[in-house]
Amino acid sequence: MAQSYRSRFLSIMSANERRMKILFSDLAIALVGELTRRAGPDGTIPRSAWPDVQAAVDARVTAFFVGRTAGGQRAPFDILQDGTVFPLSPYARALWQAITNAVRVPVEQEATLMRRVIPPDVMTVMRGATGDPFAAAKAQVREQVFRPNPLARYDAPHLWVDPNGYTLSERIWNTAGDTRRRLDAMLEDGIRRGRGVLNLETGGATGLARDLEQFLIPGRSLRRTRAPYGVDASFDAMRLARTEITRAHGQAAQMAAAMNPFVEGIKWNLSGSHPRPDICDDYASGGPNGDGIYPLNEVPNYPAHPQDMCYLTQVSIPADERQTKLDELRDDIRHERAELVRLVGPLQVDEFTRQLLGQELEIKRAVPVGTPPVSPARVVAPPVATPPQPLGEKPIEIMSTGDPKLAFLKSPVEREMTRKADEALNEIGKVHGYKNVPRGHEITQINDRRNAVNGFFDPEARPSATLKKTYSVVLNRAYLQDNIEHVTSTTVHEMGHWLDFHVLGKGKFASESHIPEMDNLWRAIIKSKRHQQWVGQLERSTGKIKQYHTYVASDAEVFARAYTQHIGQQTKNESILKMIAEDLADNSEIKLQWHADDFVEISQAFTSFLRAMELLQ
Predict the structure, then answer these.
(1) Same domain, 405 and 324
(2) Torsion angle, CA of 97/101/103/108, rounded to 10 degrees?
């Protein structure tokens, strides 16, 4: 059974709740670590250490909510030249992803409804529209005086100013400050009362550590207290997220409806979990006829209050009026009037969604009457070549068998795989060398048909049975022996994970920890068409295929694939470039690599990133 659009929105909200819980859990673990490092032999933190504890906690919480822009300023988001929003912190990234998904749902819903009633001749013209509907609405000042246009009053989610005068960025800042103050009060009270951090006998989280987890992680059993700092430090952040996602979704629904010529109104519906009468009841029974139905330009402010779960639905024109509306649209087409047929609308799902999110609203303008549509020129900077760098000592050994005593039994396949893996290490060395990286790791080969992968990265740092060294990269001979050419790209890909974990993240994946040095690289990746395609596929998929899409779009995997393509293009390695070409030529829905023009900015950002991490000479 197909999932309803309302259900899809609720699924987005649920997914965000789960994501936020994971993020707050990670923050709690980090804060417990800060407390543990400052605890004495008896497990308590001396009062004299409180200023140091406070500084460490405040820094962690601030980094959870805000990051740094390219100019070094603290902010939850950075805004690119075309209006693209680039989240800079774990909280902002999760929130903006949910907002993006929530905005797309009503656009897709409106597109589906329009396809059912619009004939092919009109559909073709409307899908070719290039005008900016928001710019067009704001230009019609005279008409707005008599009949306000909802499109003229629209602001993208990050630009909307609330009744208190705050933008989304400022609302996140305020939430970060409230969270810091409540955590500081709770921890200072615990330290003053001598509560230990951990159970010294079991090492388990008791005392102050458990208090912190219960205080910070959404959904945990709340600690009973009458303290002035309350019982749940994450409440404000969770409430803000729910409210912002709901508002973005509701605004998108109204804008999409305004661009559908077959919609004449919006109905305000009470949530099934509506707890008690409030202003929402007035809205649900308001409107000209007292039935909760409002003209498109008279819908009350939505949501009506924080955590409002009421929802909006469209009201279509009567069926017997559809033909008249179609005749009007055809007349618009014949007379080249810049009406709905000339403006981007819900039928162009991707473009209209991007505009709702604030992209290109100041670049594209409505197309004047009689003027052919002109797409803004795309400027592609030439790739920056990176000169070869000294190799340095390779940090990783290549083992072709599980037992050095049996080395003389190496097959031709093993020897060729070893040669190709060594080729991969040489290509990496040409791009950024091996200075300042850990040693004593090895690449090992296995022959396992049950593990249907070409290779994998093992971050657990287990010693191998042979050399007592860490085997980080594993190549699976069972799946590579039929295509030896892929050994080079597979090795570079897994070495990308190795670099991400051991070198950049110092024991954790830097790509998933969102280190500030990666900000410009992630800007370029998220801006690419390929990344937007992965996110869209993930949102639309279900069941087992969703698990694969989740894996494809995960930060660590995206980083490793981008790293592989960067190494291949910089060194012009034939094996890697062949793998990329094969992926792009494949008929499967999911492409794993980027087209060359889509990768230019990513490659430039990679070079700058490696230089910033002092891996380039």
Answers:
(1) no
(2) 160
Q: What is the pLDDT of residue 393?
A: 53
**Residue 491: inside a domain, yes or no?**
yes
Residue 384 lies in a domain: no
| 6 and 135 belong to one structural domain | yes
One domain for residues 521 and 416:
yes
Q: What's the distance, CA 290 to chain centroid?
A: 41
- In this structure, are residues 476 and 448 in contact, taking their beta carbons and an 8 Å threshold? yes
Q: Which residue bears the tokens 């793998």?
A: 579
Are residues 114 and 207 both part of a single domain?
yes
Average pLDDT, the chain: 76
Give the closest residue to 417 by CA, choosing from 353, 505, 481, 471.
481
* One domain for residues 479 and 337: no
**b/e 49-88 (16+ beta carbons within 10 angstroms → b):** bbeebbebbbebbbbbbbbbbeeeeebbbbbeeebbbbbb
pLDDT per residue as tens digits for the range 300-312: 888 888 878 788 8
**461's torsion region: left (phi>0), alpha (psi -120 to 50) or beta?**
left
559 exposure class (CB count in 10 Å sphere: 0-12, 13-18, 19+): buried
Residue range 216-251, pLDDT digits in tens: 777 654 343 444 444 466 778 888 888 889 888 888
Q: Are residues 253 and 163 part of one domain?
A: yes
Q: What is the pTM of this model?
A: 0.58
Q: Which domain holds residue 109?
A: 1-262+317-370
Under a CB-based contact definition with an 8 Å cutoff, are residues 326 and 122 in contact?
Answer: yes
Same domain, 76 and 221: yes
Is there a contact between 439 and 392 (Cβ–Cβ < 8 Å)? no
Cα separation, 588 vs 175, whole angstroms = 44
What CA–CA distance (Å, rounded) separates 308 from 305?
6
Give the 3-state secondary structure of residue 294: strand
User: Could you tell me if 450 and 324 lie in one domain?
Assistant: no
Using CA atoms, how far apart are residues 341 and 330, in angstroms rounded to an integer?
A: 9
DSSP per position, 65-131: H-EE-TTS-EESEEE-TTS-EEE-SHHHHHHHHHHHHHHHHHHHHHHHHHHHHS-HHHHHHHHT--B
3-class secondary structure, 1: coil
